Amino acid sequence: MGFSIPEVSIRRLSIYLRCLRQALSRGEEWIQSTELARTCGISSSLVRKDLSYFGEFGIRGRGYRVEKLIKAIEEIIGIDEPIKVIIVGAGNLGRALIRHLQEIPYFRVVGAFDKNASKVGSTVSGVRVYPVAEMEKFSRETSPQIAVLAIPPEGLQETVDMVSRAGIRGVLSFALQGIKVPPGVVMNYVEIASEIEFLSYKIKKGSVA
Amino acid sequence: MGFSIPEVSIRRLSIYLRCLRQALSRGEEWIQSTELARTCGISSSLVRKDLSYFGEFGIRGRGYRVEKLIKAIEEIIGIDEPIKVIIVGAGNLGRALIRHLQEIPYFRVVGAFDKNASKVGSTVSGVRVYPVAEMEKFSRETSPQIAVLAIPPEGLQETVDMVSRAGIRGVLSFALQGIKVPPGVVMNYVEIASEIEFLSYKIKKGSVA
DNA sequence: TTGTTTAAGTTATAACTTTCACAAAAACCA
DNA sequence: TGGTTTTTGTGAAAGTTATAACTTAAACAA
């Protein structure tokens, strides 16, 4: 029983969720693993295996009830209740992220933080920018679950430590930097440059072959 | 010899590159696999294995010459020459991406595109916004290698097809959508919502255990 | 030289992930 | 009601990736 669910399986839940929502919006009540697999670009056995890590959601001979499966996955992921997010760094990327995330119904961007006094006090999509020094106080009052860091790599360690002290346990960073992640904190990176570099390699390799 | 290099290994090259650049900026001339592994949070045997897919870059008993290894990885990835990038979608995210990528020396954001006439003609960080209809003409003249799509999922298929027709073979999308990727095109997704969802699962699970 | 140390490169093993193939269960039909 | 069809859920096999262990080469000191 003491086995762990592969991280890739967890990540694929998000993909399934998107495909399922689309199916729901098309008015489909039932979906089969083969159909879900096709729309997600994944094999049907993998879809079934991934879901089996979390329980039994389908009916044999019938498929999955779209609405029920969406609810189930949302609960597994933990987005059945809106997730409170803060943005650290109110530069170009930070402000774009605020607007972007505010449009997603199950996220609430509850605040933004910047060390630059000129940005503090401004509002982006109804989200107020606070000085970083107020993060701990803010966190005690509002209890955000996740911090999205849109800051340069230089200040990353300091910021992660601060976020951790404020009791936030999930951190998404747009700067990739080898730092010491405080215990109890889960850190995740999205480095746009790396993604483009990966593409660069692939297209370069493709043109040679 | 017809084995393929794991995608994860290619992706890790970008991580190594960042750590190596840091080491270089600290004035370090040589680096060992153990040290590179430590700063990247990867095991040393994996570092050596990853590099071995591409050649022999080190000296036994000594380590890797930092500068030489950086050059080697840059060439493997294909960023020894600046990469020309276009941004499609000049909304909040698109404009932030222009500014973000313009700061990276080995990327050149050569143009942006938007279907909204009100955005066409404007300039962001010295990058001009063109109407999407001009993409093919622009591409013939400028030959960008990669398109970054900061557009909503609804228009994704259409845009990918257009980008493909313009001869661009690498596409990075910020919207995740099950679409048909044209032959010869390499597509890569960065879905911020999915990354936060993954964190949500992890912190939820951590707090239960 | 020659022996010793160090660390890359490589092979072998272990761990993990995906696919395959089939049993079990629900639905449907005659 | 019983047989047939369908599709899930799952255990085993295959394939892939990571780690550990080992071999080789370079550097250095005596």
Description:
2 copies of one chain form a homodimer. By secondary structure, chain A is of the alpha/beta class. The first copy, chain A, folds into 2 domains: 7-75, Winged helix-like DNA-binding domain superfamily/Winged helix DNA-binding domain (Arc Repressor Mutant, subunit A), CATH 1.10.10; 83-194, NAD(P)-binding Rossmann-like Domain (Rossmann fold, 3-Layer(aba) Sandwich), CATH 3.40.50. Helix content of chain A is 45%, strand content 19%. Chain A has 8 helices and 10 strands. Chain A has helices at 7-25, 33-40, 44-52, 66-77, 92-102, 135-142, 156-165, 192-208, and strands spanning 30-31, 58-59, 63-65, 83-88, 107-114, 123-124, 127-131, 146-149, 170-173, 186-189. Chain A has a 7-stranded mixed sheet, sandwiched between helices. A 3-stranded antiparallel sheet of chain A has the order 1-3-2. Chain A is globular, with a radius of gyration of 20 Å. The N and C termini of chain A lie far apart (46 Å). The model of chain A has no long low-confidence stretch (mean pLDDT 95). Chains A and B meet through helix 1, helix 5, strand 9 and helix 8 of A and helix 1, helix 2, helix 5, strand 9 and helix 8 of B. Chain A binds a DNA duplex (30 and 30 nucleotides) through helix 3 and strand 2.
